[in-house]
Amino acid sequence: MTVAELARHPHPVIGTELPGSRILILDEHQVPVPDGQVGEICVTGTSLARGYTHPDPTSTQFTHLDLPGEPAPVRVYRTGDLGLRNTAGALEFRGRADNQVSVNGYRVELGEIESALRTHPGVHDVAVGAGEHHGQTQLTAWLVLADHAELHQVQQHLDVRLPRHMLPRLEAVLAIPLGPTGKADITTLKQTMARPTARDASLVDVVQTIWRETLGVTDVRPDDDFFALGGDSVQATRMIVATRRRLARAIPIRTVFDHSHFADFCTQLISSAGPR
User: Fold this and answer.
1) What does CATH list as the number for 104-193?
2) 68-72, 86-90, 196-200, 201-205: range with highest mean pLDDT
3) Which residues of 92-124 are buried (b: 16+ CB within 10 A; e: fewer)?
4) Which residues on adjacent β-strands are paired with residue 139?
5) Which residues contact 175 (CB under 8 A, 6 or more apart)?
6) Dihedral angle sign, alpha carbons of residues 9, 90, 69, 63
7) What are the residue ranges spanned by the domains of the chain?
8) How many angstroms separate the CA atoms of 171 and 142, rounded?
9) Cα-flanking dihedrals φ and ψ of residue 258, to 5°?
10) What pLDDT score was predicted for residue 230?
11) What is the CA radius of gyration of the chain?
């Protein structure tokens, strides 16, 4: 067991190896990475178990690897945990390997995005997931916000803490559903956001009419961008004012800048409307 001062270590410190064991930090090609670089934490050594006495999905984590400097393949247990060896020689935990996604060629740890969001005082709870949108990986963060908080404030908070490829699309929800293991149920969140109701359909029709009238176009599709259709800041303000009047709701001007695609804009209005 190890202990770490959270004020000194922003990431949990695991410690160092016990006698008879050796910790390896390997990249996705099972090659050791330099100190300070994140990789999968793998265990080897004379104290490593030989396996399980009964079939278990975890048994597939035992493998043999050809490692530099070793005359024969080395038996290794892949933990599925991510970590690095810091300047003091101790191991730092950086999340789960199965919670990583690739965005524009970058490996993104969803837990890091979640941690950054939780530092905002207006965020009560959060879950982060990834999906496909027009062939691209899209990150989405579902947030339970305090009464005083707004999505654009959280977005500004993230903009100065995360690189651009790690910035998710933000969605406000009333609660984060949990699965059988107690973890956030991302599948349910995605299905809930995608499932229209009669009230939602009515809202979409109203907003679509307002966009057509404001932009002078005959049709607005779900993936159309307000500004790509010819909209500017003046028309954006006019559209928001008209939407406020038609829906009798307070809608920040910033909403159309943060969610300029029609489907995203409508989803944001739906998610911020309260219980269905």
Assistant:
1) 3.30.300.30
2) 86-90
3) bbbbebebbbebeeeebbbbbbbbbbeebebbe
4) 130
5) 125, 144
6) negative
7) 13-95, 104-193, 198-271
8) 5
9) -80, -25
10) 92
11) 24
3-state DSSP helix/strand/coil % of the chain, to nearest 5:
30, 25, 40
3-state secondary structure of 257: helix
The dihedral region occupied by 89, where left means phi > 0, alpha psi between -120 and 50, and beta the remainder, is left
Token pair of 53 as six digits: 């006495």
The dihedrals phi and psi of 273, each to the nearest 5 degrees, come to -85, -5
Question: Distance between CA 102 and CA 134 in Å, rounded?
Answer: 15
Give the tokens for residue 58: 């975890």
Residue 231 reports pLDDT greater than 90: yes
Among 59, 57, 41, which residue's Cα sits nearest to residue 49? 59
SS3 of residue 262 by DSSP: helix
Strand ranges, E, within the chain: 13-15, 22-26, 39-44, 62-65, 74-85, 91-96, 100-103, 106-109, 123-133, 136-145, 169-172
**Angle, vertex CA 158, rays to CA 5 and CA 152, nearest 5:** 135
Contacts of 219 (CB under 8 A, 6+ apart): 212
CATH topology of domain 13-95: Luciferase; domain 3 (2.30.38)
Cross-strand pairs, 133:
136
pTM of this structure: 0.47
Q: Which CATH class is domain 198-271?
A: mainly alpha
